[in-house]
Description:
Layout: H1 3-29, H2 34-52, H3 55-67, H4 69-92
Helix pairs in contact: 3-4
Amino acid sequence: xxxxxxxxxxxxxxxxxxxxxxxxxxxxxxxxxxxxxxxxxxxxxxxxxxxxxxxxxxxxxxxxxxxxxxxxxxxxxxxxxxxxxxxxxxxxxxxxxxxxxxxxxxxxx
Length: 109
C-alpha cells in the first residue's frame, strides 16, 4: 500500500469518527425538540388518514351546513379564497418558470 492511499484511508477514518461525534452531539441537543416533532408526525398522520377517508370531511361539511348555514358559507368563502391563493402561489413558485413582470388586471383574465 503506498503512502497516498494510506494517508487517504487515515483521513477517511478520522472524518468518520468526527462525523459520529457530531451525530451524537446533535442527538443530545435536539432531544428537546422531540415533542414538537412527535406533534408534527401526529398531524401528518391525521392528514393522511383524512385523505384515505374523505367521507368524514364530507359528513362534517354537511353537518356544518345543517347546523350553522351562515357559518358554513363564511368558511366556504374563506376556503375558496385560500384555494385560489394557493393555486397562484404554486404557479408562481414552479421551478424553471420565470416570475411574471406583468401586473394582474381583471380585463386580462
